[in-house]
Design brief:
Layout: E1 8-11, H1 14-22, E2 27-31, E3 36-40, E4 43-49, E5 61-66, H2 69-78, E6 90-96, E7 102-107, E8 113-118, H3 119-128
Length: 129
């Protein structure tokens, strides 16, 4: 097995969190009362219970570096995550950042910010240097 890091994110309700991420293509890898792991290909997100979390006050987040950002964006849109600037969940469509990378932003129902980073754009940024 190769080295890896898996983000640990809060969930107010495991059932609701699992349903939200299932619509994005994640499946249950493990779940008990104190921990849940959701996987999609080589991605794994781990969740711990935090029933009293205020999503508006959450400072949790992770970067998901994706070989196919457009596929994930299509899943987010199909799941009905709104493109808005307040509340959770919400989505900000991809754009090319000043540093050259293409990135979208997804806030899950618990206020965790997922930066969806296009791996292809990172290759272009490195090639330009």
């Amino acid at each position: 097995m190769s080295d890896r890091a898996n983000p640990n994110l809060p969930a107010r309700d495991f059932d609701a969190t699992e349903a939200f991420y299932a619509a994005l293509g994640f499946a249950r890898g493990f779940r008990d009362n104190g921990w849940m792991i959701l996987v999609k290909g080589t991605l794994a997100l781990e969740f711990f219970p935090f029933p009293d979390l205020d999503p508006a006050q959450s400072a949790f987040g992770a970067c998901l570096r994706l070989d196919d950002l457009d596929d994930m964006v299509a899943r987010v849109v199909a799941a009905g995550v709104p493109d808005k600037r307040e509340g959770a969940p919400r989505f900000h469509p991809p754009k090319t950042e000043p540093w050259g990378g293409r990135i979208a932003y997804l806030l899950d129902p618990d206020g965790s910010l997922l930066r969806l980073i296009d791996n292809r754009s990172l290759g272009e940024v490195q090639a330009a240097r």
